[in-house]
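ok, trying the design again with the full structure, not the truncated one.
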């Protein structure tokens, strides 16, 4: 060290034992005998807890140290010297043991994801590319569109076949706004009058024997007819009508045949097919008697 000592003065900095003719180690520009150096400065092995002497390799990872022969996988005990390894909970593992114990696994096949493998993820689950498949046809979905149902995913064609709403009339899938009638779904263009086939979507309609009809067809086919104007009395929209002895009138048509005053809510007298207010009936009777 470019310094001179008497032989009995060249001593260990820790224990003062002479170092003349002995192996020694310098630390912070001071000499130490082997024993003192190992007692004071040597690291303890994380595996066997013994000091790592100067004649042993000191292998370190994250402030931990091992003898070369103690640097082993925590599970299979294979040497990790010059080998790839992983760490978990302050323990070290060879790559195979680490993968088996801690690597993420495919929710389809249960196998691990290895380096370079493509991973598909959806709602916290992950699959190998080949395992991300339609639950019905089992074809890989890849980058194609899919539809979730409960815990499964389906390609679009399979989802339509199994779950999509179908029109009661044409049985095809309803992809955009349809019509519900008696708890059954219809395409707007398929929900038609049973007689004239005109679309009933957004229109007034009524039903007969479980079949829908537009107002015009229902009136022509099934409604009573007004005894005055002969037009159908449909009642649609709240229209009121009057019935008497198997004859029927719209409220507006129920008028005196003589003076045309409304007889709704009033007394009236019939004369053949005519209905008359009491005054006109009296006048007609007097004229007939003279």
């Amino acid at each position: 060290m470019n310094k001179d000592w008497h032989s009995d003065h060249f001593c260990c900095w820790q224990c003062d034992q002479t170092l003349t003719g002995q192996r020694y180690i310098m630390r912070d520009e001071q000499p130490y005998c082997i024993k003192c150096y190992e007692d004071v400065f040597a690291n303890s092995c994380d595996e066997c807890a013994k000091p790592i002497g100067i004649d042993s390799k000191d292998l370190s990872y994250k402030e931990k140290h091992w003898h070369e022969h103690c640097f082993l996988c925590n599970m299979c005990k294979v040497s990790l010297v010059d080998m790839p390894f992983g760490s978990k909970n302050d323990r070290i593992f060879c790559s195979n043991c680490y993968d088996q114990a801690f690597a993420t696994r495919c929710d389809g096949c249960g196998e691990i994801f290895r380096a370079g493998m493509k991973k598909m993820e959806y709602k916290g689950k992950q699959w190998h590319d080949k395992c991300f498949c339609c639950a019905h046809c089992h074809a890989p979905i890849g980058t194609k569109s899919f539809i979730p149902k409960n815990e499964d995913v389906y390609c679009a064609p399979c989802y339509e076949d199994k779950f999509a709403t179908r029109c009661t009339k044409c049985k095809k899938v309803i992809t955009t706004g349809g019509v519900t009638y008696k708890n059954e779904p219809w395409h707007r263009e398929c929900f038609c009058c049973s007689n004239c086939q005109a679309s009933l979507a957004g229109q007034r309609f009524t039903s007969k024997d479980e079949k829908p009809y537009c107002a015009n067809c229902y009136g022509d086919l099934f409604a009573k007819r007004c005894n005055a104007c002969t037009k159908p009395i449909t009642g649609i929209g709240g229209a009121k009508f009057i019935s008497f002895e198997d004859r029927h009138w719209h409220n507006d048509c129920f008028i005196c045949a003589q003076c045309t005053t409304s007889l709704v809510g009033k007394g009236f007298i019939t004369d053949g097919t005519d209905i008359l207010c009491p005054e006109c009936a009296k006048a007609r009777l007097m004229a007939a008697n003279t």
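Keeping the full-length input from now on. The chain has a mean pLDDT of 81.
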